[in-house]
Amino acid sequence: MSKQDNHFQKEMKMPTKPKTAHKEPIDLEVGTVSEEIEVPVASEVVFRKIWKIKRFHKTIAKRDLVDSPVFRCSVNGMATFWNISVRFWKGPNGKKVTNPLVVCLNLTGCETEETGQARVRFQFGVWDASIKHWECCPISSVVLNLQNSKDLLSVGYKSLGILDRHLDSSKDVSIMLKLQIIQSDEEVHSLSQDMARLLVKSEDKDTIIECASKEDESPLTVHSWIIRARSSKLAMKLQKSEDEKTPNIKYKLDLSDFQHSLVTELVRYIYTDKVDNADTHANKLLPLSTRYQLPGLTALCERTLLESLTPSNVANILLLADQCRCENLRKAALHYCENSEEIKESVHIGKTLAWRVMEMVNPDLFLEACESFGSSSSNLDSPGTPGSWSD
Fold this sequence. Notes:
Strand content: 25-35%
Distance between the termini: 111 Å
């Protein structure tokens, strides 16, 4: 190697990686994402929110009030903001009572382009961790004036008793809220409301329904074409009627085995797909829905009965589901029986009449229920069985 080459190598420097100043890591998530629902009819949307209260007993012991985070319910351009709060009753000595709780629903704000009245339907429930099922309160309904506002408004409350079965393995309690917002204008122009108005109007009705009525209850009249369109079974029961006093009545429908109030709700469903006070009538409407092949009413009754399941009524609902061949409700009731010590105890000590009746009239169903909570034996026929005959 010549001196010139050696000198060139000394002058030449190998390239190195350029030094860069230390930079903060780049946040890949930018901004926020919100959800808004767009539907043809907002009243068909039911919002379902679940609030888990961590370490429940410790939390309520050291606080005078407990509030959930604010949550947003937005549909068709109207956004409402809500929270759930827990408050406490006070005993005679002025000290707070931690059981039962007062669970409140609060409207914390509203953003809407069009102000107006709306009907709000809501329902609270508490999770039964022992059988993995929601215990639901009756549905409540209020009318609110919705407008742009950030004012806090208490909408309603329920008293909830929290028992050991409501505590999960982490000692948490879960409270559920179902919320439905029905704007007044929307109700006025909906098909369901148009059909409800058609039901009220007396003109053009050509069918009278014969049912068990009291003196102060008005006769029920309907349109035969609606009966035919909704139920082929009911259509087959239409009989021609010729009465000079009521020349517009051409048919009669014999439902004389059923009370006026029950038939009224059946007719309301046929016209509007809705039932008033479903929790009151569901157990009697379910057999009618299967007899007259109204699957939508069957599903409505099943949902209502499922939400109303308790250890004290599960036997009656199980018998009803089996009688009406409602497999979904039947399976749900059997699942409800699983791992429930309270139900197991009711069966073994003969605590309720419904379990005794089930064992006598449907022993196969009774055995299946017993097997669902790990026992196939019966103590109900033991002469020394303690307990009452009340259901």
